[in-house]
């Protein structure tokens, strides 16, 4: 039962170690596991653009006897956990158990994301951020707060930065975009139609679009560059938890990259911002001694 419950996590963890054909199968499953449970073997092979024997080899590589058992274990993976809370938590968990599980799940997901992120792609993303005339961070739902956090970080770099979670405002900004503008679109699934449309509109008007989204998703396909974010949880069923933490951490990585790229000459500017807050705080115990 443990293997069935953790199948999606096992696929995610082993993604980089799979051969090219099997990785295509894994990516289709991870992008929409609930849909994969409804596929016949022929439909899954078609969606992944592989042969049916490749699907069977994929099953065997995970110790699964065949495609019917794969679908069963996927269904069990989706059914495990407390519905609409977290796939890591079960309905009868004690406070000690669900606290431990949430922390453990988050740490494991962060490590998996770290293993999958490509440093070369990170470097290209930093290039886009450093070269931008102005940056707009877009997110909807749970990703809206991530966009706000990004604005809070990146305004420190003496750039024109904004964050927006209203679809109409996002569309209006994309419609008047210019070369030199950068739109950073944050979407866990990459399947939100409005955000895909907005990305296409911004690029049509000459702007660059950086996606923080799922590999191979509709949004990733229309971005100038996509930082492929792993899919450790099914947000169609569970509330976003580890996915949000991964997004925030990736933005921390990008902020660090921009800081380092600016070099030592930029440090006085950052120090000035920090020192502007000193008068707003009570002294700590050591300062008052």
TrEMBL record:
<dbReference type="Pfam" id="PF01418">
    <property type="entry name" value="HTH_6"/>
</dbReference>
<dbReference type="InterPro" id="IPR035472">
    <property type="entry name" value="RpiR-like_SIS"/>
</dbReference>
<keyword id="KW-0238">DNA-binding</keyword>
<dbReference type="InterPro" id="IPR009057">
    <property type="entry name" value="Homeodomain-like_sf"/>
</dbReference>
<dbReference type="GO" id="GO:0097367">
    <property type="term" value="F:carbohydrate derivative binding"/>
</dbReference>
<feature type="domain" description="SIS">
    <location>
        <begin position="125"/>
        <end position="264"/>
    </location>
</feature>
<protein>
    <submittedName>
        <fullName>RpiR family transcriptional regulator</fullName>
    </submittedName>
</protein>
<feature type="domain" description="HTH rpiR-type">
    <location>
        <begin position="5"/>
        <end position="81"/>
    </location>
</feature>
<dbReference type="GO" id="GO:1901135">
    <property type="term" value="P:carbohydrate derivative metabolic process"/>
</dbReference>
<dbReference type="InterPro" id="IPR047640">
    <property type="entry name" value="RpiR-like"/>
</dbReference>
<dbReference type="GO" id="GO:0003677">
    <property type="term" value="F:DNA binding"/>
</dbReference>
<dbReference type="InterPro" id="IPR046348">
    <property type="entry name" value="SIS_dom_sf"/>
</dbReference>
<dbReference type="InterPro" id="IPR036388">
    <property type="entry name" value="WH-like_DNA-bd_sf"/>
</dbReference>
<keyword id="KW-0804">Transcription</keyword>
<dbReference type="Pfam" id="PF01380">
    <property type="entry name" value="SIS"/>
</dbReference>
<dbReference type="InterPro" id="IPR000281">
    <property type="entry name" value="HTH_RpiR"/>
</dbReference>
<dbReference type="GO" id="GO:0003700">
    <property type="term" value="F:DNA-binding transcription factor activity"/>
</dbReference>
<dbReference type="InterPro" id="IPR001347">
    <property type="entry name" value="SIS_dom"/>
</dbReference>
<keyword id="KW-0805">Transcription regulation</keyword>
